[in-house]
Design a protein that fits this description.
This protein has 4 helices and 6 strands; from the N terminus they run βββαβαββαα. It is α+β, with helices and mostly antiparallel strands and 112 residues long. Strands 4-3-5-6 form a 4-stranded mixed β-sheet, sandwiched between helices. Strands 1-2 form a two-stranded antiparallel sheet. Strand 1 (3-9) and strand 2 (15-21) form a beta hairpin. Bound molecules: glutathione (GSH).
Length: 112
């Protein structure tokens, strides 16, 4: 549920269809935490939905309703709120985010 089929690289080096999580981010243009979160997501090379709540009270209310928080950014993975930039950064640092994205982080060196 809440996943999209996408063509992605598999860890074996071939190509395979895999389910990637649906990522959404509510943000404000002037907020540095929002910019850092957007940059982190962009660096992953994944597609994600951006929701600009800078001057949009309706969408901001939706964000608060869904997340229970008033600060931006608010990030959702498969409809589940994970929090803001600090939370995304921690998830990424732990390797769990890449795992959810199906990214190979092993960096196995090539045999000589
Ligand atoms: N720890 C949060 C900090 C986010 C934050 O402080 N955002 C500011 C704007 S840059 C904000 O929304 N402040 C208003 C509030 O906290 O309600 C994160 O990493 O996302």
């Amino acid at each position: 549920m809440n996943t999209v089929k996408t063509f992605t690289r598999s860890s074996s080096g071939g190509n395979a269809f895999a389910s990637t999580p649906r990522i959404e981010i509510y943000f404000k243009t002037w907020c540095p935490y929002s910019r850092w979160a957007l940059a982190l997501l962009s660096d992953k090379g994944i597609s994600f939905k951006t929701i600009d709540v800078t001057d949009n009270r309706v969408l901001e209310a939706e964000m608060i309703d869904r997340s229970g928080r008033t600060s931006v950014p608010q990030i959702f993975i498969d409809n589940e709120g994970i929090g803001g930039y600090d939370d995304l950064k921690a998830l990424d640092a732990s390797g769990a985010f890449d795992q959810q994205l199906g990214v190979d982080t092993e960096n196995t060196p090539l045999a000589a």
